Fold this sequence. Notes:
The protein has one domain (6-183, 212-248): Survival protein SurE-like phosphatase/nucleotidase (Stationary-phase Survival Protein Sure Homolog, Chain: A), CATH 3.40.1210.10. It is built from seven helices and 13 strands. It has helices spanning 18-27, 70-79, 104-107, 109-119, 135-152, 218-223, 242-248, and strands spanning 6-10, 32-38, 57-60, 63-66, 90-97, 124-129, 161-166, 176-178, 184-186, 190-194, 200-204, 209-211, 227-231. Strands 3-4-2-1-5-6-7-13-8 form a nine-stranded mixed beta sheet, sandwiched between helices. Strands 9-12 form a two-stranded antiparallel ribbon. The longest helix is centred in the middle third of the chain and has 18 residues, at 135-152. The radius of gyration is 20 Å and the shape is globular.
Amino acid sequence: MPERPLILQSNDDGVHASGLRLLRAALLEVADVVTMAPLTEQSANSHALTLARPLRHRTVDGLHAVDGTPADCVYVALHRDGFLPRRPDLVVSGINHGYNLGSDTFYSGTVAAAREAALRGVPAIAFSCGPKGSLEQAAKVAVEIVRRVLAAGTPAGGTPLLNVNFPAGAAVHHGIRATRLGRRSYDDEVVTRRDPRGHEYVWLGGPNAHHHPEEGTDTEAVDAGYVSVTPLRLDMVYPEHLGLAAFVAGVGELAPEG
């Protein structure tokens, strides 16, 4: 009898998050699942690793947790001797409570957990759901996406890293689209206040997100009620600026503009 796939699951909302638990329950239909999630919410911690203090491992309702970042969770699970029965076939992160679209991917702990796996050569998917979206419906669709990724194997070009976003609101989406990253901007601001002792403190980040309408993007897809599937790359080199790098290094000349 063929061995069931092994999936490692994490997130950035923490081990108590309903999106994590709903996805885990759905995935158990098609695979063995080991969950290692942050003990507390770690949203917007990006790809931080905890190097200046030890991490504590806990078990919460039968799920594993560490008091660190999403990337910590995947790192510990993949490298701690004897934690996993074997190398996982796939790592999934989520389902996150809220979008991870466009530039969000640079800040997202959800995406970072998946990226940490892909950096280690394990295919990975980050799942996120828009405000008031149906996590139950998203979990069902996520299982179908997982089935297809497992069936596809490793494509040409290296380890796959997919960023999946489910639309807000309606329980039933219109379909699934392959997309590229769009542009999502916020009302950026720094709110300055003073504590009861007169010391200044600040809150970062504005409350509203704005999507720029660009065809073929993840932002356009979810706004139209579709699930977006965006392949992300690990190689961040910008080839068009290699000439600039050579000029800065003193070994080349700048090409004329135009």
